[in-house]
Design a protein that fits this description.
The chain has 260 residues and is an alpha+beta fold. The protein contains 5 helices and 12 strands. It has helices at 2-33, 47-54, 64-70, 75-80, 191-198, and strands at 82-89, 103-113, 118-120, 123-125, 130-132, 140-142, 147-154, 168-174, 203-205, 208-213, 216-223, 226-234. The strands form 3 sheets. An 8-stranded antiparallel beta sheet has the order 1-2-7-8-12-11-10-9. A two-stranded antiparallel ribbon has the order 3-4. A two-stranded antiparallel ribbon has the order 5-6.
Length: 260
């Protein structure tokens, strides 16, 4: 009798222990599950999915010319190829883009190259006014205002320095090709060559091909079908054919520091 009673107690304890362990395992599982994000919650989404959701919609993909107009060349890298230049402060016109931050407007011209770019009477020189016309780099052009760059420098630790990594390009004019700026070596080329390289222009105005994207414009002034000079400019307003200042289609002598 005692033997059966003892066996009954053992069996009862065994099932009680199993039931208790099962509950404990369920509690542990529930505890761990509560730390996991719910499949329907935003926490369960991959990080890159969340980033994409927060991005503004892209109206249309950028074309090759659009990307080129946004950044036609690396300004800092270009200036790094020079030993320096003449420079001075400048007043932007009403049509120029002006960053909404405190800073200074500058003009740079007569860039002194680090490499020989001119030979006179057998003497190799680094001539700051030398450039070339067309594709033949021996077709030398000497112009003090052959390349003029206008920039904006934010008032920070780099302000007033020739090499400024935070400097913003506002305008560039060129009357000849600079040896260190192949990205904009268009002077002397036929208009058909420009179209072949960049595609069809946005419009034609004042004997000039105009390529535009938003407030950016690249103007090629033509003479006898060839590029006489070019102007790249960041404008205060979006480019529209009917409201572009006529001044943008003329290029006066710029080998001085004061504005006309």
């Amino acid at each position: 009798m005692f033997k059966y009673f003892f066996l009954s107690v053992v069996i009862t304890c065994f099932f009680a222990a199993c039931h208790s362990n099962s509950e404990n395992r369920n509690l542990e599982t529930k505890s761990l599950d509560s730390l996991q994000p719910h499949p329907d919650s935003s926490e369960a989404k991959p990080a890159d999915t969340l980033i994409l959701e927060n991005q503004p919609p892209q109206l249309k993909p950028l074309s090759g010319i659009d990307s080129f107009l946004i950044k036609p060349f690396n300004l800092y890298a270009f200036k790094s190829k020079k030993n320096g230049s003449l420079s001075g402060s400048v007043q932007f016109k009403s049509y120029h883009y002006k960053p909404a931050i405190e800073g200074k407007a500058y003009r740079f011209f007569m860039f002194e190259p680090k490499e020989v770019n001119y030979v006179s009477d057998g003497r190799a020189m680094r001539h700051s006014a030398a450039g070339y016309i067309g594709t033949n780099k021996k077709n030398i052009s000497l112009k003090e205002d052959g390349l003029v760059i206008k920039t904006f420098q934010v008032n920070n630790k780099y302000v007033d320095k020739f090499l400024n990594p935070t400097e913003e390009l506002i305008e560039l004019t060129a009357k000849h090709n600079d040896f260190d700026l192949p990205e904009l070596a268009f002077i002397g080329l036929d208009s058909s060559q420009i179209i072949q390289r960049l595609g069809s222009a946005s419009f034609f105005q004042e004997h000039a091909l105009v390529y535009s994207y938003r407030n950016l414009a690249l103007i090629f002034k033509l003479e006898m079908g060839k590029v006489l000079w070019l102007r790249y400019i960041k404008l205060a307003k979006p480019v529209l054919k009917e409201n572009l200042a006529k001044e943008l289609f003329t290029l006066t002598n710029q080998n001085h520091l004061s504005e006309r």
